[in-house]
């Protein structure tokens, strides 16, 4: 039996339950989790902002050790340390043929599968965002498994599966921050902290962190922020004052709220770039008038999974970790058990802390 955090229905509390996992079939891998990050996307899935089939085991940011492999799996073996990739690319859809694997049309097909059953009543369970990392063990498609590069602590490596890939990709792939540019990061959670570290790695000069919580300033500055602004109706004005009244070259929004997206856009200079990483609900409507779009000449763009290709980017991130440029442990403010996930969700809603990490 395996213990897991089960979402019985949208909006319902998570339940810690025992589940039955099958042996891995052809093209599948069974993994014993070492750790799983609690991401805001998990909260969005639990409250219905994003939709997945339920009942489900959530959790999509994880790392662990291979227990067994099914027929045809050759890139990993039992005993290997691995990272979970919740959005594997199919390689054949239109986006994949363009090299935009982060937009793969088939990436989340596995979320509709039945991958396990409740031990108590045999009820079907779906694997959240493909990988069901909120469990002691999981069975996933081999395409969701990446070998962990050498020299990376297995527990902290879980963060590479979402927060770090997203934050790094937002800076290096989506916004394409250049050395010497100025950056503002809105939201100092796990992704925001990763974005701040990545802006520092990219050689940004002024790096402004923005959050509703004054208590996050120390975390933000440790990650690379040179300035800290407590969010208010004057945020854009404060950021322009910190950048010679021009505004930053790049703003990265990691919250997913209309007012924050609008403020991030207003905080950039003429011709600047705003990248939206945060996932908001359909009710979050952002408006612009035609004249300001013309006058400011700014670019506003979405960003999915950091516009990253995990197979290519994880080795790059690992090199940054080994060189001391990227500190995975600094992103974690709480190390918890499965039972601590609901409290981690509450902290997200309240704007507290960075990344919570479930450690098995």
Describe the protein in words.
The protein is α/β, with parallel strands linked by helices. The chain contains 11 helices and 18 strands. The protein has helices at 40-47, 94-97, 154-157, 163-174, 190-202, 217-223, 235-242, 258-266, 290-296, 310-322, 341-350; strands at 2-7, 15-20, 28-38, 56-57, 61-69, 81-84, 116-118, 124-125, 137-141, 145-147, 183-186, 207-211, 227-230, 248-253, 268-276, 299-302, 332-336, 355-359. The strands form 3 sheets. Strands 3, 5, 6, 9, 10, 17 and 18 form a 7-stranded mixed sheet that branches. The protein has a 6-stranded parallel sheet with strand order 13-12-11-14-15-16, sandwiched between helices. It is globular and about 60 Å long.
Q: Strand share of the residues?
A: 25-35%
Number of helices: 11
* Stretches with pLDDT under 50, minimum 5 residues: none
N/C terminus separation? 15 Å
Order of helices and strands: EEEHEEEHEEEEHHEHEHEHEHEHEHEHE
Instruction: Compute the average pLDDT.
Output: 96
Summarize the structure.
The protein has 360 residues and is an alpha/beta fold. 26% of the residues lie in helices and 26% in strands.
